[in-house]
Design goal:
The complex is a heterodimer.
Chain A (H helix, E strand, L loop, with lengths): L1 H5 L4 H7 L3 E6 H6 L3 H10 L16 E5 L5 E5 L4 H17 L2 H4 L23 E9 L23 E8 L1 H5 L11 E3 L3 H10 L16 E14 L2 E18 L8 E18 L4 E14 L14 E9 L19
Antiparallel strand pairs in A: 2-3, 4-5, 4-11, 6-7, 7-8, 8-9, 9-10, 10-11
Chain B lengths: L1 H12 L19 H8 L3 H4 L10 H11 L3 E6 L8
The chains are: A alpha+beta, B mainly alpha.
Chain lengths: 335, 85
């Protein structure tokens, strides 16, 4: 999250990146997989800053500059834009020093072919929502949502992204059957479940787990037709959700697990436009606002356990490749 | 500045609680919708990192780098850097 703000808004870094093909990817699969993509990454990473490392972790997170056949040009794992810029300059110097024939060798993996990636399940004819989560201002004058570190802490301005995927039939389940003003539908099934307990989790400061099905105490989303113009049906969306889970997590990092309760309770409100001819949404926006509480191992809430305001914005994702990233808790979809 | 003003308004609206009182979430209504949306949505400055032209997989970068005859820059993290980290 820090890198998003500090590194990739830096003018020098952005200028240097124009000489590269920039890509981002999840490291866990790449460093453990056996497919051509993963094996190529492992070749790169084992020349880089964490080569061979197993302690304190075996992570290969970081920034890598490489040729297409896995010749490392430079690498680093840092959020300082000056150091990243220096790494990019080093990589370009190494690239420029390579003989032309070695920059893009004809042999080697071409980056194509069937890969078992979650992105391959992208619902082209369904509904793809970009989900932003963020802390909202607190009562009692506590403006900084980082009690232990003060207002300069990055967590005071933290926000996160995720995606929500609905298949075509799951998206259609949000639309009342009657195409007339006033018609309503109580959304249920996977569409509601995915919004209420998979999406509405506290990932503002870092990843967490979906709420278990049994933790869902209330979930309602009412869809009401407010206008009909030809095939376009405008909907008002309104609802609520509450879940709470008791569990044991090492919330301070890698220490012992401690008993904790976490949860969310809040309201949902929004609107959408369904194109009945195309059988897809052409507009969609939904807010969820409520309270969150508790923590899990990696979501950075170990010193912020009490209920505090949180907000979520669901909106239509763009159709570009950068928004084809799979939802963080895709395993919970059952697809 | 606009965000700061909105955040201040929301803070004042929800600041009736004291240390002894339960915390309340801002009330989500048609009237409060625009202010809350603005408080949640990333600003253009916060979203600027997305303008780099990222490809979402290493494999797509390999294919594109072969076509464009360029080196690859890969940002690899726990959690996809373009989504939930």
């Amino acid at each position: 999250m820090i890198a998003r703000r500090a590194v990739y808004t830096d003018p020098k870094v952005r200028a240097l990146l124009t000489r590269f093909v920039p890509a981002a990817d999840e490291v866990g699969r790449l460093q453990r997989g056996k497919d051509p993509e993963s094996l190529l990454f492992q070749k790169v990473a084992e020349q880089g800053h964490y080569a061979g490392r197993t302690v304190p972790t075996s992570t290969r997170q970081g920034l890598y500059a490489t040729t297409v056949d896995g010749r490392l040009l430079a690498s680093i794992n840092h959020n300082d834009p000056a150091r990243v810029a220096a790494m990019l300059e080093k990589a370009l110097a190494a690239w420029d020093a390579l003989p032309e024939a070695e920059r893009v060798p004809a042999e080697g993996w071409d980056g194509k072919g069937e890969l078992r990636r979650l992105e391959g399940r992208y619902p082209n004819d369904g509904l793809v929502l970009r989900l932003t989560s963020r802390d909202l201002p607190r009562g009692g004058g506590a403006a900084a949502p980082s009690p232990s570190r003060g207002a300069t802490d990055w967590r005071a301005a933290a926000w996160n992204l995720d995606y929500v995927w609905l298949r075509r039939e799951e998206a259609a389940a949000l639309v009342p059957e009657a195409r007339q003003v006033g018609a309503t539908r109580e959304v249920e099934g996977p569409s509601l479940d995915r919004l209420a307990r998979v999406a509405l989790v506290d990932n503002v400061r870092g990843q967490t787990y979906p709420a278990p099905k049994e933790s869902l105490e209330r979930a309602r989303l009412t869809s009401t037709v407010t206008a009909v113009e030809g095939a376009r049906v405008t909907l008002a969306l309104e609802g609520e959700a509450r879940w709470e889970q008791s569990g044991r997590w090492p919330i301070g990092g890698n220490g012992p697990a401690t008993p904790t309760r976490r949860g969310f309770e809040g309201r949902l409100l929004g609107s959408a436009t369904w194109d009945a001819d195309a059988q897809r949404f052409v507009a969609f926006e939904l807010l969820a606002v409520g309270l969150r509480w508790g923590a899990t191992q990696y979501n950075g809430r170990h010193d912020d356990l009490a209920p505090q305001p949180i907000g979520y914005l669901f909106e239509l994702a763009a159709d570009g490749p950068a928004e084809h990233v799979a939802p963080a808790a895709f395993w919970e979809y059952g697809w | 500045m606009r965000r700061a003003t909105l955040l201040l308004c929301l803070l004042l609206a929800s600041s009736a609680a004291t240390a002894e009182e339960p915390v309340a979430a801002p009330l989500l209504t048609a009237e409060s919708y625009a202010g809350l949306r603005s408080a949640i949505a990333p600003t253009p400055e916060e979203s600027a990192w997305r303008d780099v032209g990222w490809l979402p997989t290493f494999g797509e970068a390999v294919a594109e780098a072969r076509r464009a005859r360029k080196p690859i820059f890969l940002w690899a993290m726990n959690g996809h850097p373009l989504a939930c980290v």
